[in-house]
TrEMBL record:
InterPro entries: Glyco_trans_2-like, Glycosyltransf_2, Nucleotide-diphossugar_trans
Record Gene3D superfamilies: Spore Coat Polysaccharide Biosynthesis Protein SpsA, Chain A (3.90.550.10)
Keyword Transferase (UniProt): yes
Keyword list, A-Z: Transferase
Lineage summary: Bacteria, Pseudomonadati, Pseudomonadota, Alphaproteobacteria, Hyphomicrobiales
Organism field: Phyllobacterium brassicacearum
Pfam families in the cross-refs: Glycos_transf_2
UniProt-recorded name of the protein: Glycosyl transferase family A
A Gene Ontology molecular function term of the record: transferase activity
Domain spans labelled Glycosyltransferase 2-like: 7-129
Length: 345
């Protein structure tokens, strides 16, 4: 019955790691939980070890130097042996019955479920029984839909499918020589899933929730650097050059790469401006004119949004104000239609 290994990459997560581990150990399908402490400066490793339920399923490893979440997850995969691998972030949790739900679906290499986002302020009062059930048959995720649904848009709640935390067959990863890209500290999940889809992975998704993500204002994903964005855009270019993509899929992946590179140019401009002043930042335009449009567009939008908030006396909202939010709420057919419309426009 126990066939799942849960891998957790953790850094400075002493306040949340116990809840994450407990949610995994409570599931009877979990045979192993491997925690890799990525050189934390707090008591993450000790707290993780204290979460042991005595079943012998928990293994805690500590890196002495920070290597990033991709390296930590790869090491956890090598330290485990269960045929199915599940990813759990150190401040998130599994919802009771998750793996029974996922394992009831046939014919997949990768399978994921919907995610409920819970604000950090409301996590103590959160009751998973209040989550509505979403019906409908499982749907197959293709690379065109996946790439398009990872392009974030202003004035739209974030719902990138790269947030998915799936269950993956070890055999598929091994057969295709797939692991997390250790050069990435941003978007490493997106890149792995994109390559898997390019290699023909049967990626099934169910609409019901089985994963809880805690929304924190100081999350690592919200503190990405210009280099992080550049590395992610460069990784997308490697996929485009692989020859594995259809014309439509390549257009979607290229659109995502262009989106990430535009964010890189904007971030680079802001960083240079902060360090060296506006004159040095403006020199970025001169050195590379291709950066002018994305940088200018991003700055104009930032100023416009700030002015709009001031004019309307609107507060800057930082949370979900107690409301449950989900990764996706459209029917799967509509997700695919949206992606097709965007790539054929």
């Amino acid at each position: 019955m126990s066939s799942v290994c849960t891998i957790i990459a953790a850094r400075n997560a002493s306040s949340t790691i116990s809840a994450a581990i407990t949610s995994a150990l409570n599931d009877p399908h979990v045979a192993e939980v491997v925690v890799v402490d990525d050189a934390s400066t707090d008591a993450t490793a000790d707290t993780a070890r204290e979460s042991n339920d005595g079943s012998g399923r928990l293994k805690v490893v500590r890196f002495e130097t920070n290597k990033g979440p991709a390296a930590a997850r790869n090491y956890a995969i090598e330290c485990s042996s269960a045929p199915l691998i599940s990813v759990l972030d150190a401040d998130d949790f599994f919802i009771e019955g998750r793996f029974s739900q996922l394992l009831s679906v046939p014919d997949w290499d990768i399978i994921a479920d919907n995610i409920v986002f819970v604000s950090e302020e409301s996590i103590r009062d959160f009751d998973s029984r209040t989550i509505p059930r979403f019906g409908g048959a499982p749907w197959t995720l293709d690379i065109t839909t996946f790439a398009q649904r990872n392009i974030s848009k202003r004035h739209r709640q974030r719902g990138e499918l790269g947030f998915l935390k799936p269950l993956i067959r070890r055999e598929f990863l091994t057969r295709n020589n797939l692991r997390y890209n250790e050069k990435l500290r941003l978007g490493e999940d997106y890149e792995l899933y994109a390559w898997a889809l390019a290699f023909g992975a049967r990626f099934q998704v169910i609409s019901n929730c089985g994963y809880g993500a805690v929304v924190r204002s100081d999350s690592l994903s919200g503190r990405h650097s210009a280099d992080d964005l550049k590395n992610l855009a460069d990784a997308a270019e490697m996929l485009l050059k692989s020859g594995l993509l259809s014309h439509q899929a390549a257009k979607a992946v290229e659109a995502h790469a262009k989106h990430v590179r535009s964010k890189y140019y904007h971030r680079q401009f802001l960083d240079v401006n902060a360090r060296e002043g506006l004159a040095a930042a403006a020199a970025v335009f001169v050195r590379d004119p291709a950066t002018m449009l994305p940088i200018t567009s991003a700055i104009v939008m930032d100023k416009y949004e700030a002015f709009t908030r001031f004019w309307r006396n609107e507060p800057v909202l930082s949370g979900d104000e107690g409301r449950l939010r989900f990764l996706f709420d459209k029917p799967p057919r509509q997700l695919s239609e949206d992606a097709t419309r965007l790539t054929t426009a």
